[in-house]
């Protein structure tokens, strides 16, 4: 019945569209006849979110929901030509709010956990999401919103966008992404409720990524970007949170990386400005004298050559490859790709990289034609006043929200005024009433965190259950039509006229947390004079000290671990101290090079893995404070900072131990922990000062997700622009995003394969941008950066030497690299095969929704892996026997992890297969492969830039000419 | 080493791009279709004793470029000029670029030099001593020789250069015909930008460095 009605409605809509005079019958436009009505439209609305895909296919194979949506789209099209219809829809119907709340309802139905069996998953593909009915339903609705915004009258579009932003993104998607992960140590991830939160956040991030990839209507995308770039949730900038998560070593890090890849890949000026250019425009990252070199053009390929020279060469312990009589003892250094042909056969020629770089850069340059500024160091000039607002919102909401914190606490009201967008009349209305966000403040306490969003998100039951508007409401609606407003009573709430005033719609209270979050975020003036630095450090340390003792007190009764002080550990600590001291001495000897002192990695690792007690750390700290170097300049704060981080990690670890041993103690622990955080936060400005010297190896922390809590606090502070500083009172900085990415890159040897693929993918994608500010930073090795900004070259050459050192610990690292190549080749092949299957199975999609095209999406997903081994044609030339040999490992995408093993165990060759069995070893080998490819990629991009930067305007118009001459 | 073959290509392409930016009047030059180490060019002279001359030349670039020797310039056929070898047609380029400096010298400067020798004739250290002497002692006879050379070049304009006959990028002249009208029109009116299906995104206002400040409706985003 319903289907029939709907298809009839569709017919009516088609007729109306064809013959506008019919409209008069359905819709009384003239105002004189009293309230106008458009019954067909109103009747269709309830079916908007119906899917009926799987459960109720109609006779025609088209679903009820789809029919309703198609019919509505016809009306939308009509509204574009007829403003009075648009006005009617906006003012007298609940079309927009229903669409937006529908998204919220459908979103809350999405799986909170994405089932994946392997660690490599980082992006939702069309294939994956189309297997999930609730996700399909959501995507349909999102698609519908997209279409409506595209074809409807701008008034409707604006209205709908407002509702999506304030009714879906900020109150629903926001909290689900922004959930507090602070207190979820990695080791607890198997505990149900911790892993739930983590999974939810991972899923939410993946959803957001998917949405951004799917939306193609700029206005809708704009709202999503506004959400990502500007929104503050729980008083924290969402963007900051997302950036922080890049450094997570869990799957969340992976998902966050892929979200950023998607963002960067949009070629959107606003995104790039916000993430990168904003920080590069002041040119504080380069030496003053170097600023004029930003636009320099290096045409003789020196930079590319430089990249290629960074390719590592590995020493072969067992020199079995070249068995031409060279003595075994002699270490033969061979260049990476000259090692043997076997590597060569997986690697494509440099030409392939160049070709790839060529088209990618052309596409990027073309896309950037619509940008407003060249970002070449001159326009905008380095004196350009970067809007404070941006900095503040970027940094953390803390400073900007500190002032109105109290207000917002009480009224539960986020004002929208800061957002510079003028939304017109409707928006103004919603600004007045604002959004009630008491529910949005996710309490940092554990209990509230674990509350699933849907529990607290109240929608009318019919809406939530995806049912049409209840009959009684409809009857009420029709009877009340004379009043031209739409009243209805919600079952569990007071009489609220939701739809009469769009703004009052927001009064929906989503979550009602009883917990009161104490406002501990006090921020000192950002102008911290240098003279006070020392005192501040002391204060900070003292605070840490006090919380430690606090902690110790609490733990003394149940736990005696403290007492067992290991002598070994003492020596370790001493070593550490000595090292720090010696580096301090170096520094005092004016060896500027050693400013970036890095603590011995292994040593630290050892420290981390052994049970240290706090006592020892306190000793360390005391000695640090006592030693003279604290009185020295700001630069040594590195060490202290490292110490504090270590300490913090230690606390975490200690806590873990305590908890695992005394599960009943959790509460006490949490108590302690919040205490600690409070203290840490109050010393916020000190921390942020410390953070300034960013050269410290953040990877240390990243290694251990236990320290998430602290990490995020520190990150927050790090983002905040501090006035204290090194030159001109402004710190040399490249912004939190690049910094985080670079730090992650420094840690490449310890990253998983997929993190490295994504990470290098992001960096080379960034390198495609032609803007001199960014290009010079990434690709010009002769540009001299400020001392505390590490250049990409520096990082890469460090990695090269690290890799070379590590390779010597294996018997035959070249062979391991070869195995890694082989495995990756197999994976890629498997991915490609699956790709082929998918393409064949692809159902015809709507032509308009380009980004929903499965094939395309697939390409964007896999391109990184696919691109990595472009030498497929060469590889396929291998002997058949070789292929057969591998063939029975029969790999599928889903089961790649196991494939690694199968592949290797079946490998008939005798050399040290056992080395390969160690996951860490494999990882290093993969890293070597990725690193090598990455360098080639960068070299190709650099060469391509040297050619393309000349033709700024005219290059692209020679295509038609050739066509003409043919 | 695989890198080098590409490196040279890229260096030459960059040089060519630089050259295009120079808009050196009266000279067209294009790399040979067979090797990008050979650039074929034509110089149309609009003033001076050689006015009206249309001289073909090729630039031979050493494969060690830009670190090695100077490029060589050969006129084909040879031009009667004190600085040009009458037999081989080689222009003495060393007098201007004694040593090729990778950071100071570019190929477009070679083209500028080619243009210059026909405007201001110098006879010191001449290659073609006859021409130099004639220029110094009997300018009238020199000019006669020159105009002979110029006329010859004009007469031979439609005869394809034998050296570049099998080169797909060879510069070939043909009499004007209507068919070329469209091409001319196309060249003059400019062309539609290619790749206009690729659209980036920006909601920034020019000069206002703040994100998402505009609310324009952008054309559909494609990536």
From TrEMBL, chain A:
Please list the residue ranges annotated as the FHF complex subunit HOOK-interacting protein C-terminal domain: 734-825
Q: Which family does it belong to?
A: Belongs to the FHIP family.
What Pfam families does the annotation carry?
DUF5917, KELAA, RAI16-like
InterPro entries recorded for this chain?
FHIP, FHIP_C, FHIP_KELAA_motif
Q: Where is the composition biased (Basic and acidic residues)?
A: 850-859
Source taxon at top rank: Eukaryota
Which residue ranges have biased composition labelled Basic residues? 839-849
Region: Disordered, residue numbers: 835-859
Name it. FHF complex subunit HOOK-interacting protein C-terminal domain-containing protein
UniProtKB/TrEMBL annotation, chain B:
Query: InterPro entries from the xrefs?
Result: Ub_conjugating_enzyme (IPR050113), UBC (IPR000608), UBQ-conjugating_enzyme/RWD (IPR016135)
Gene3D superfamilies given in the database record:
Ubiquitin Conjugating Enzyme (3.10.110.10)
Q: Where is the UBC core domain?
A: 7-155
Mind telling me which PANTHER family this protein's record contains? Answer: UBIQUITIN-CONJUGATING ENZYME E2
Name assigned to this protein? UBC core domain-containing protein
Q: Which organism is it from?
A: Rotaria socialis
What taxonomic lineage is listed for the species of origin? Eukaryota, Metazoa, Spiralia, Gnathifera, Rotifera
């Amino acid at each position: 019945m319903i289907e029939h009605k709907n298809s009839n409605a569709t017919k009516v809509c088609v007729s109306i569209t064809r013959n506008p005079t019919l409209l008069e019958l359905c819709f009384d436009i003239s105002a004189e006849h009293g309230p106008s009505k458009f019954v067909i439209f109103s009747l269709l609305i309830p079916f908007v979110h119906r899917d009926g895909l799987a459960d109720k296919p109609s006779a025609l194979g088209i679903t009820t929901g789809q029919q309703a949506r198609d019919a509505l789209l016809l009306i939308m099209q009509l509204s574009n030509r007829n403003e009075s219809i648009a006005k009617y829809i906006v003012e007298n119907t609940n079309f927009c709010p229903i669409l937006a709340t529908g998204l919220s309802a459908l979103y809350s139905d999405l799986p909170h956990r994405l089932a994946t069996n392997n660690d490599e998953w980082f992006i939702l593909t069309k294939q994956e999401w189309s297997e999930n009915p609730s996700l399909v339903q959501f995507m349909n609705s999102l698609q519908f919103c997209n279409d409506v915004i595209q074809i409807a009258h701008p008034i409707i579009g604006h209205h709908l966008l407002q509702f999506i932003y304030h009714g879906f993104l900020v109150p629903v998607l926001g909290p689900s992404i922004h959930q507090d992960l602070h207190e979820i140590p990695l080791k607890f991830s198997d505990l149900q409720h911790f892993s739930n939160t983590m999974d939810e956040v991972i899923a939410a991030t993946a959803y957001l990524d998917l949405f951004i990839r799917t939306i193609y209507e700029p206005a809708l995308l704009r709202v999503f970007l506004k959400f990502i770039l500007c929104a503050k949730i729980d008083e924290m900038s969402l963007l900051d949170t997302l950036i922080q998560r890049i450094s997570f070593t869990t799957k969340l890090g992976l998902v966050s990386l892929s979200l950023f890849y998607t963002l960067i890949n949009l070629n959107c000026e606003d995104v790039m400005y916000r993430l990168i250019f904003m920080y590069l425009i002041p040119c504080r990252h380069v030496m003053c004298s170097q600023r004029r070199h930003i636009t320099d053009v290096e045409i003789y390929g020196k930079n590319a050559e430089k990249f290629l020279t960074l390719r590592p060469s590995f020493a072969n312990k067992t020199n079995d490859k070249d068995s031409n009589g060279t003595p075994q003892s002699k270490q033969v250094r061979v260049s990476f790709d000259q090692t043997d042909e076997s590597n060569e056969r997986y690697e494509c020629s440099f030409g392939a990289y160049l070709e790839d770089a060529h088209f990618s850069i052309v596409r990027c340059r073309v896309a950037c034609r619509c940008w407003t500024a060249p970002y070449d160091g001159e326009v905008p000039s380095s004196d350009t006043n970067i809007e404070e607002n941006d900095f503040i919102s970027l940094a953390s909401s803390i400073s900007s929200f500190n002032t109105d914190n109290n207000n917002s606490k009480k009224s539960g009201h986020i004002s929208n005024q800061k957002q510079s967008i003028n939304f017109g009349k409707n928006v103004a209305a919603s600004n007045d009433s604002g959004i009630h966000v008491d529910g949005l403040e996710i309490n940092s306490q554990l209990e509230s965190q674990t509350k699933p969003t849907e529990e607290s998100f109240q929608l009318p039951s019919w809406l939530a259950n995806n049912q049409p508007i209840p009959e009684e409401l409809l009857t009420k609606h029709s009877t009340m039509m004379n009043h031209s407003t739409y009243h209805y009573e919600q079952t569990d709430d007071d009489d609220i006229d939701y739809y009469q005033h769009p703004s009052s719609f927001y009064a929906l209270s989503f979550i009602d947390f009883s917990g009161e979050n104490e406002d501990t975020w006090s921020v000192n003036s950002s102008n911290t004079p240098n003279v006070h630095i020392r005192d501040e450090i002391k204060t900070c340390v003292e605070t840490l000290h006090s919380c430690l003792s606090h902690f110790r007190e609490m733990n003394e009764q149940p736990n005696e671990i403290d007492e067992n002080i290991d002598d070994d550990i003492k020596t370790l600590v001493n070593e550490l101290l000595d090292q720090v001291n010696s580096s301090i001495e170096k520094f005092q000897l004016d060896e500027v090079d050693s400013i970036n002192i890095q603590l011995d990695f292994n040593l630290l690792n050892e420290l981390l893995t052994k049970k240290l007690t706090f006592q020892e750390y306190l000793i360390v700290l005391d000695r640090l404070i006592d030693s003279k170097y604290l009185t020295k300049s700001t630069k040594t704060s590195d060490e202290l900072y490292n110490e504090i981080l270590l300490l913090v990690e230690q606390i975490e670890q200690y806590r873990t131990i305590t908890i695992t041993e005394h599960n009943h103690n959790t509460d006490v622990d949490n108590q302690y922990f919040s205490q600690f955080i409070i203290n840490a936060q109050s010393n916020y400005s000190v921390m942020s000062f410390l953070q300034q010297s960013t050269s410290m190896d953040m990877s240390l922390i990243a290694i251990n997700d236990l320290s998430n809590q602290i990490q995020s606090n520190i990150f927050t502070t790090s983002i905040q622009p501090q006035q204290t500083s090194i030159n001109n009172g402004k710190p040399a900085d490249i912004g939190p995003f690049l910094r985080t990415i670079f730090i992650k890159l420094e840690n490449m040897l310890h990253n998983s394969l997929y993190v490295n693929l994504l990470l290098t993918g992001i960096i080379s994608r960034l390198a495609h941008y032609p803007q001199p500010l960014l290009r010079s930073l990434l690709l010009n090795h002769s540009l001299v950066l400020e001392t505390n900004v590490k250049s990409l070259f520096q990082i890469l050459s460090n990695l090269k030497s690290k890799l070379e050192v590590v390779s010597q610990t294996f018997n035959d690292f070249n062979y391991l690299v070869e195995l890694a190549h082989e495995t990756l080749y197999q994976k890629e092949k498997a991915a490609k095969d699956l790709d082929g299957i998918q393409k064949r199975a692809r159902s015809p999609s709507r032509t308009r929704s380009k980004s929903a095209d499965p094939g395309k999406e697939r390409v964007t997903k896999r391109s990184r892996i696919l691109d990595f081994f472009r030498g497929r044609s060469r590889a396929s030339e291998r002997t058949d026997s070789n292929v057969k040999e591998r063939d029975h490992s029969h790999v599928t995408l889903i089961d790649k992890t196991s494939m690694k093993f199968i592949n290797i165990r079946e490998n008939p060759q005798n050399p040290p297969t056992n080395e390969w069995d160690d996951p860490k070893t494999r990882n290093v080998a993969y890293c070597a492969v990725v690193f090598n490819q990455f360098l080639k990629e960068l070299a190709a991009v650099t060469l391509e830039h040297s050619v393309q930067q000349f033709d700024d305007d005219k290059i692209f118009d020679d295509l038609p000419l050739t066509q003409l001459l043919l | 080493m695989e890198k080098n073959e590409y490196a040279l290509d890229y260096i030459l392409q960059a040089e060519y791009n630089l050259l295009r930016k120079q808009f050196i009047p009266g000279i067209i030059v294009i790399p040979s279709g067979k090797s990008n180490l050979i650039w074929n060019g034509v110089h149309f002279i609009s003033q001076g004793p050689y006015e009206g001359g249309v001289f073909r030349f090729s630039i031979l670039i050493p494969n060690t470029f830009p670190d090695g020797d100077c490029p060589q310039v050969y006129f084909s056929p040879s031009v009667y000029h004190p600085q040009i070898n009458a037999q081989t047609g080689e222009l003495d380029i060393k007098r201007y670029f004694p040593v090729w400096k990778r950071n100071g010298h570019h190929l477009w400067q070679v083209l500028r030099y080619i243009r210059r020798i026909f405007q201001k004739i110098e006879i010191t250290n001449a290659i073609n001593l006859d021409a130099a002497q004639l220029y110094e002692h009997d300018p009238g006879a020199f000019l006669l020789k020159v105009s002979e050379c110029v006329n010859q070049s004009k007469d031979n304009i439609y005869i394809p250069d034998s050296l570049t006959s099998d080169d797909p990028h060879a510069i070939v002249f043909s009499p004007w015909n209507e068919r070329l009208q469209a091409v001319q029109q196309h060249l003059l009116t400019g062309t539609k930008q290619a790749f206009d299906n690729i659209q980036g995104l920006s909601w920034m206002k020019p000069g206002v460095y703040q994100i998402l400040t505009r609310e324009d409706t952008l054309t559909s985003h494609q990536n």
